[in-house]
Amino acid sequence: MLTLKRVGAGASLRDFMRVPHLTQGHDPYWVAPISLELGPLQIGEGPRFNPKVNPWFQHGEVMFWVAERDGQLVGRISAQIDQNHLKLYNDATGFFGFFECIDDQEVANALFEAGFAWLREKGMKRCVGPFSFNINDPDAGLLIDGFNCRPRVAMGHAQPYYQKLVEDAGFAKAVDMRAYLTPMDTALPFKQLQWLKRRLARNPRLAVRSLDPKRYDEDFAAIVDIWRAGWVDNWGSIPMTEAEGKYLAEETKLIVIPELVSIATVDGKPAAMCMALPDFNEMIWDLKGKLLPFGWAKLIWRVLTRRSFLSGTRVILMGVSPEYKNKSMGSQLALLTVGAVREASLKLGMLVCEMSWVLETNTQTCHSIEEIGGKVYKTYRMFERAI
Asked: How is domain 2-178 classified at the CATH fold level?
């Protein structure tokens, strides 16, 4: 017998967090998330679900369900509304997320219907997802291609049959997002880099530097400002709040390597940035989501030695201030920041970089990445349907 239970009313958050271990735990490419809460350090699944920690709850409301059959967990889902999205678009759209399910359409349909009913109660007429809360959060989109390798930091994984479950529940494609794999030892030809460096040397207005740990909060705020301004016209954009920017900065602080964050300035003002993170999933994939009894010691050692321990990175943020976008200066600034991250990656021995995710409709960025050797190796999809 199939039953659905709301988290907090028949099911616990622990049940909700257990589901992906049951649906994807057999997959060698799935990376189990961790939950780490040590004083001010709050990262991973547990803190994300905590309204006292995650600032998304300041403008969002969510409901969680788990599905059980004969006492066994077989699926989960969330439904959420984001007031910042509704104020911006006024489109009566809610979201679904955190979708995990066994290969059974009955279970999937029951989960979606529960979410739709809750969204309709809130006045929503359309559902989009999957989002883990909203488009600014990790794991946005459903993996539909590229199942044969592990996801990189803050990217999701799925089973191949998930797409069919979602589509047979009435969803259609909204937009695809691409993950590019870019070899750092060949990206950006040497001659091009030398030309850019000469341009930089001849123009005293321009400078390129790494993130400064001594003014981490200030630099990170500038990075978020550039990203937020550059992202505003993209599909589904919701401006990140100041509190959300600070929350992201705190989560990132654990693993960031300053040399992998490049900031270009014009007359001393940040004008472009490229931020690559070392692949945190390389640190945690074999922990299976468990920090006890000895997983915590492994993780601490790997964080401390991450410069020598890790082999890959992911560019999570990249952008140019709007005043330089679609101008030759903007292209130069973008290449300068990417080039600086490339050089740092080579010095650190991190030779492979994922640039993600990039909307398929963002043709300029897609072409730029492809020109430096990036190849699409994973595709994530956003779905939509009327409810």
From this structure: Aminopeptidase (3.40.630)
What DSSP letter does each residue of 151-176 carry, written as one string? --TT-----TTHHHHHHHTT-EEEEE
Residues 182-379, CATH architecture: 3-Layer(aba) Sandwich (3.40)
Q: Which residue has the tokens 């200066």?
A: 329
Note the maximum CA span of the chain. 73
For CATH 3.40.630.30, list the domain ranges present in the chain: 2-178, 182-379
154 Ramachandran zone, left/alpha/beta (phi>0; psi -120 to 50):
left
Task: Please write the tens of the pLDDT for every residue from 302-337.
Answer: 988 888 888 899 999 999 998 887 777 887 888 889
- Segment (H or E) for 383: strand 375-386
Backbone φ, ψ for residue 122 (5° rounding) = -90, 5
Cα 114 to chain center, whole Å? 26
Residue pair 261/210 in contact (Cβ under 8 Å)? The answer is yes
- pLDDT digit string, tens, across residues 116-165: 999 999 999 999 999 999 999 888 999 999 999 999 999 999 999 999 99
DSSP string, 2-44: EEEEEETBEE-HHHHHHHHHHHHTT-TT-----EEEETTEEEE
